[in-house]
């Protein structure tokens, strides 16, 4: 029989967290020091920041479903020679195979956002692995990307156990250090709002999270890229990042 301490330890590793952070202001670094989960991210090699001594940016998109903007986003990234990673679900993979192929063919990474977008903390490790394997195998069969090294937990919900399970399966869990409330297509506030929300949070080593369903993001992205570069920032692929939490 398990002792009380073993039961408590198991419960602790299953404690769910919703990723959140103290936003950057005036170029200062964001923080997860007050959220209570920083040691768990560090222990499991999760990503929140890049190298904060360098003016580099990592552009990440969550693609749960298509809302008509991703093709234009890809056009823009190609024209401006900006790499990105698109975290896709099983629905996106089945519904938009041509866009997934295009992402890979144009030099972007495709990351794992799970097959059915569940709360990973509510499913066992075996099911978690199935969720990730289905996306990875599907992308491998569809495109020239045969590796999948990055996962983004659906809804930013995680536990010590789920991060460890992903890491054991070869993934680095990717969170973010720049974000705003952009995921609801019925609550868009204009491209100027999107631009201001992102630019106000820029900082060295930024991992930007954008949702591709947002009309505001699609319209603001060109100016965000141009003005970030004017400030001396360089856009890099997650493959260029040293995998550690800063």
Key descriptive features of the protein:
single chain, 246 residues, alpha/beta, 9 helices, 38% helix, 13% strand, disordered N terminus
Quick rundown:
This protein is of the alpha/beta class and 246 residues long. It is built from nine helices and nine strands. The termini are far apart.
Structure in words:
This protein has 246 residues and is α/β, with parallel strands linked by helices. The protein is 38% helix and 13% strand. The chain contains nine helices and nine strands. The strands form three sheets. Strands 2, 3, 4, 8 and 9 form a five-stranded parallel β-sheet that branches. A two-stranded antiparallel sheet has the order 1-6. It has a two-stranded parallel sheet with strand order 5-7. The longest helix has 18 residues. The radius of gyration is 18 Å and the shape is globular. It starts with a helix and ends in a 10-residue tail after the last strand.
